[in-house]
Amino acid sequence: xxxxxxxxxxxxxxxxxxxxxxxxxxxxxxxxxxxxxxxxxxxxxxxxxxxxxxxxxxxxxxxxxxxxxxxxxxxxxxxxxxxxxxxxxxxxxxxxxxxxxxxxxxxxxxxxxxxxxxxxxxxxxxxxxxxxxxxxxxxxxxxxxxxxxxxxxxxxxxxxxxxxxxxxxxxxxxxxxxxxxxxxxxxxxxxxxxxxxxxxxxxxxxxxxxxxxxxxxxxxxxxxxxxxxxxxxxxxxxxxxxxxxxxxxxxxxxxxxxxxxxxxxxxxxxxxxxxxxxxxxxxxxxxxxxxxxxxxxxxxxxxxxxxxxxxxxxxxxxxxxxxxxxxxx
Amino acid sequence: xxxxxxxxxxxxxxxxxxxxxxxxxxxxxxxxxxxxxxxxxxxxxxxxxxxxxxxxxxxxxxxxxxxxxxxxxxxxxxxxxxxxxxxxxxxxxxxxxxxxxxxxxxxxxxxxxxxxxxxxxxxxxxxxxxxxxxxxxxxxxxxxxxxxxxxxxxxxxxxxxxxxxxxxxxxxxxxxxxxxxxxxxxxxxxxxxxxxxxxxxxxxxxxxxxxxxxxxxxxxxxxxxxxxxxxxxxxxxxxxxxxxxxxxxxxxxxxxxxxxxxxxxxxxxxxxxxxxxxxxxxxxxxxxxxxxxx
Lengths: 329, 294
Description:
- Helix content of chain A is 34%, strand content 23%.
- With 329 residues, chain A is an alpha/beta fold.
- The longest helix of chain A is centred in the middle third of the chain and has 18 residues, at 195-212.
- Chain B has helices at residues 2-20, 23-40, 42-45, 83-119, 121-135, 139-150, 154-181, 184-191, 196-232, 244-250, 260-287.
- In chain B, helix 6 packs across helix 7, helix 9 packs parallel to helix 10 (244-250) and helix 9 runs antiparallel to helix 11 (260-287).
- The two termini of chain B are 20 Å apart.
């Protein structure tokens, strides 16, 4: 793939968190420091202008991956290539540029806005960062931004607690857009909103994407939302990507046993579909001590000896359809 | 800039309005203001200089008692000094010590607490252990020890009081910083490339300053009590400076015959600390469930 095809490419990315025990705990309980392997070797390509959906159960490392890509967390291992350049060593001016091009929208609209700041305060920070020094110009741009995300100009002097959840999410949007980014990580932007508001926000997302030619990494656990917005979908399990495919292909012909289970868990009113549902047994293993071999083998209905021994490599089974499973090697 | 001044003014007016609707906070504030006025205008308000008196006038009872004179409303002490005048002058020492020691403790606690809570790691370990060490000493005993080493005097007193008192602020600010730090608005600020200093002062601080203010108010009362205790023990401010604690001490030997010498400054102290606590707790009620701006 040529480098102008993709905006961001991740190679072997790992993010491990070390849980430190205090000296006293170590002596008394003999517990050692342990490592949480939140993201454990992820390869991912995000193409310019697309929406890549990232799905998985709670705690599988989706959000951590999103944040590590933006260098909000320092990666433990692996490469992040932004427009073909490794951002590992970026500091100062270069980092500022990266921050400008890559932004994030959060899940919780109540925690993502500083309760002590007005919309004006919230929006002036990124504008000042971008170098809009003239107050008049800034004011104008803020009004344009508010209108763009569907808010009124007179909202500018209001505090976050005066808005509803959906409106707050729009402010979070405006804040990200103020940087004029190319790439936005949407970390479950609609999962804490009402279904009716979800639709509005999703439409806003896709309108803005076309208008400003944005690229999204859309993190979600709601598969119907992902189906609605994504061009391609990546399925994550226990810190690894198990399957990547164009949305249609993934939903019509899921390859990985985990993806199949995930898809069959979509609620349905049709009795026939409900009967065929395949429910996964057990819970997600701990990422402190992940299983050997394929991380999914403990719950996989089709697991065999090989799965326990070595981790499967990702293979392309169809054009653009990658699966990491021993069934397809 | 003008916008900001207006916002601050509007918030202050809103706060004042809320205080007026909270009876105990209002009572506390009124008494507190009265004390501050008293301390500021002591030379004008006091009928006599604080340190002069004649032995012939000693042990005059308060005006409403038999033998009392309207010239000395609250009576005189064992060397004939006017107790009311000394109480008025004594308010200066109490308020100064209370406000100054709390202000210094607050600044130290705020800076160290924010650093500790934001960066964690080794700095946090060292500072927290040191704070715990200081917490293990009883406050008054610690202050007596420090004063015994430094000797009496206004600034030594402030030093003795601050030396341990910053820990309270440190622990509060550290805890609040840790809990605020994990919220997504801080991450958004990092995603915008804001510096750590900016994040702490511009994003986190405005969210925790309210609990710090409440703690500060309540601590002022505690500091004043401690100062009075030290002055009572004779290791407070310089001898000769009228302080309520040493006035109580002066009358200690005559409590049976001339109760007013000890009681009057004691009452002044009681009323001031009561007012501070009423105000502080009222402020907590008003600010804690998040100040409604509009």
